[in-house]
Design a protein that fits this description.
By secondary structure, this protein is mostly helical. It has one domain: Lysozyme (Orthogonal Bundle). Helix content is 63%, strand content 2%. Strands 1-2 form a two-stranded antiparallel ribbon. Helix 4 packs across helix 6 and helix 4 crosses helix 8. The radius of gyration is 18 Å and the shape is globular.
């Protein structure tokens, strides 16, 4: 391995360690504008773009799901339940991170993809997880990767739950899935206007690709 590439790997590893500890990023300043999100965190664009190339799920759909699930909060968790409205109790699920993946599904993702060290509070892992889930939904349920409404229902209920139609009796969930679809449409339209600029690789990525 060339010394320059080894040096960059070390730098990126140290940056990654920083991001999953005390340096975890705060949510973007403008959640409703995908161009401003990627302008603030340009590497997020490349993470989402990599997942799109790998799994076929559009960037706009990935980001709409993350928006709904965590509002881009790396350490998001469901609120604790309370006993007698006062005493804090357990959380309703083990959902955590950008994608709000639960423990069991995250373990399956890591096992099937070989990403054994993937962390739920790492953005690149969240986009890859959503892409992996979308690919399974297409293979097992026939849901196209761009069908944000149906994909979100499966994402929330699980593949088996979607197949059984558990969402049909949850009007609130259907409303949320429609909202995810609308956000995906808005993000898609916005991205068409700014993606050319976003695809101009930053200096570090241009150097990496040439060595």
């Amino acid at each position: 391995m060339r010394p320059i590439k080894l040096f960059l790997i070390i730098v990126l590893m140290l940056s990654s360690m920083c991001l999953v500890t005390s340096c975890t990023r705060s949510p973007p300043d403008h959640l409703d504008n995908i161009c401003l999100i990627f302008k603030q965190y340009n590497d997020w664009y490349w993470d989402a773009e990599a997942a799109q190339r790998k799994w076929g799920v559009p960037i706009s759909v990935q980001m709409a799901i993350i928006y709904q699930e965590s509002h881009y909060n790396a350490t998001a968790r469901p609120a604790r339940q309370h006993i007698l409205w006062v005493i804090p109790w357990f959380r309703p699920t083990s959902a955590y991170g950008y994608s709000q993946a639960v423990n069991q599904t995250w373990k399956l993702y890591r096992r099937q993809t070989g990403n054994g060290d993937a962390s739920r509070n790492a953005f690149h892992a969240a986009t890859d997880f959503i892409g992996w889930f979308a690919a399974r939904a297409r293979r097992k349920l026939g849901i196209k990767q761009y069908q944000a409404f149906r994909l979100y229902l499966a994402y929330h209920e699980g593949l088996l739950g979607y197949k059984r139609g558990t969402y049909r009796h949850k009007r609130w969930l259907i409303d949320v899935a429609h909202r995810v679809q609308r956000i995906a449409w808005i993000y898609h339209a916005q991205l068409k206007r700014c993606e050319g600029q976003l695809r101009q690789k930053p200096f570090w990525k241009r150097v990496w690709d040439t060595i």
